[in-house]
Amino acid sequence: MLYRDFITIGPTASRAFSNWPTLYEAFHKAAFDTSFYFHKQNGEMGAGPRKFSESFGWNVLRIDLHKMLMDTVLANGIEVRYLQHVVEFLEIEDKGGVKLADGEILYADVVIAADGIRSKSWTIVGGVEPTTYSSGSAIFRCAYSTSRAMEIPSIQKNWSFAEKGQTMHFFLGSVSHGTMLIGKEKTCWGWMHRDDGKTSQESWSAKLSKSTARQQLDEDGEWSPEYLSVVQKTPANSIIHWKLVWRDMQQTWTSPKGRVVQIGDAAHAFLPTAVNGATQAFEDAVSLPCCLRMAIDQQGMAGIPTATRVHNTLRLDRVSFIQQVGFKRRHALRNVDWEAAEKDPSVVAVEPQKWQYEHNPEQYATERFEECRDCLDTGKTFVNTNKPEHYTFVPWTLADIDAGKI
Questions:
Q1: Distinct helix (H) and strand (E) counts, the chain
Q2: Taking a C-beta distance cutoff of 8 angstroms, is the pair 23, 65 a contact?
Q3: d(CA 49, CA 375)
Q4: Selection from 64, 54, 50, 68 nearest residue 10 by Cα
Q5: Rounded CA gap, 52 and 82, in Å?
Q6: How far apart are CA 225 and CA 44, in angstroms?
Q7: Non-local CB neighbours of 245 within 8 Å, separated by 6+ positions
Q8: What local confidence, expressed as pLDDT, does residue 1 receive?
Q9: What is the pLDDT of residue 262?
Q10: How far is CA 313 from CA 93, 96, 308, in A?
């Protein structure tokens, strides 16, 4: 069984689950209650244990999250059509649409493009797909049964779930870092490293052998023996080799007539080190319906273009800043001051700040909708407050990041 690995859901997203009690209960039942440790690459302890802060949120297996969301969708009587391959997004004056591979065209009052980093919606939203840049990095991603990991004597002795609970370990080097999460039922490991350009793809189907993975690890220096043992225990055909591709931030997530709107990675991709891509997708999924409800209440279906554009405006500044956090945290993980980290693990953890984790996207959209709409109608400047006070949005590119301008 390919579990793929875990994903982090922040408190601004998980709080929204409380609107669906069964979903909320399932999420907190499946989520990892984790203590984490920071090690040098060779396994030497640097800092920890430290409880996984609620400001970060909770880790959960991707497969578990997908199942609980699908169960909620079906329980609410929402029709799901499987194996429908969208090849194009469309819009006419008062409808958005999608064209399927078999030629069928489906229209709706609004179409939400939530189809990820290579969304087909870019041709109608921005005219062209955003330019991609090689990050020079890739990541191994894997998960398997903890009972299998506990067959490793050193893991059973030092990191037994029964004695230590669920633990997450970071093994930090100067050019790469590894992760290892030992849960009650599943163990996950990953390695963000220099991309050799041979076996990685931006795809969940990009597999590589355990021997190849181990060879690449060995070429990158001395690693923790326990970490290597977890890698070595990996079942066959279980390692995903994901290429990390960068994209410039995009300001516009709506089509010209406002009937197609992007959310999640389709609108704003994140580095894994942002630890926030999924959370921001859920924030989108809360904000957009609020805007749609308020606009439709006031204008009927004719208000949908207003709703999508207000949503875009309300979310842009916040998302842009958090995207930048991913680059800063990546740098922090590669340049650890171990003496400082031993005294205060938050130095390396780079935890989210209060403005980030206390945000309520539903309340924010509800309270700021009319002001934002009026500003868009009159051309006045709208000032978001769901971001750091010091931050003023300016368009940026990855070249700006590399040049130290951001």
A1: 16, 15
A2: no
A3: 48
A4: 54
A5: 36
A6: 10
A7: 117, 132, 133, 134, 135, 202
A8: 42
A9: 98
A10: 22, 20, 9
The structure tokens listed for 124 are: 């109608």
CA angle 288, 13, 107 (to 5 degrees): 30
- The residue to which tokens 């709706």 are assigned: 108
Q: At what angle do helices 304-334 and 277-299 cross, to 10 degrees?
A: 170
Catalytic hit among 4, 15, 50, 141: 141
Cβ partners under 8 Å of residue 297, min gap 6: none
Distance (Å, rounded) from C-alpha 262 to C-alpha 92? 17
Closest among 338, 282, 275 to 39, alpha carbons compared: 338
Q: How far apart are the first and last CA of the chain?
A: 42
Identify the CA nearest to 248 among candidates 117, 381, 356.
117
Per-residue pLDDT, 2:
47
| Lookup result for tokens 């009052």 | 109
Q: Residues 163, 31: contact at Cβ < 8 Å?
A: no
Point out the residues of the chain with pLDDT beneath 70: 1-4, 345-347, 349-350
Residues 328, 332, 335, 341, Cα dihedral to 10°: 160
Instruction: Identify whether 214 is a catalytic site residue.
Output: no
Whether residue 270 contacts residue 117, with contact meaning beta carbons closer than 8 Å, is answered with no
Q: What is the pLDDT of residue 134?
A: 84
In terms of Cα–Cα distance, which of 263, 259, 390 is closest to 316?
263
* DSSP states along 15-45: GGGGGSHHHHHHHHHHSB-EEEEEEETTS-E
pLDDT at 349: 66
Q: Give phi and psi for 307, each to the nearest 5.
A: -60, -45
Does residue 12 come out as left (phi exceeding 0), alpha (psi in the -120 to 50 range) or beta? alpha
pLDDT at site 372? 98
Q: What are phi and psi of 101, to 5 degrees?
A: -60, -30
Instruction: Give the separation between CA 359 and CA 354, rounded to whole angstroms.
Output: 8
Report the distance separating Cα 331 and Cα 300, nearest Å.
Answer: 48
Q: Indicate the burial class of 36 (C-beta count within 10 angstroms; 0-12, 13-18, 19 or more).
A: buried
Q: Position of tokens 């689950």?
A: 17
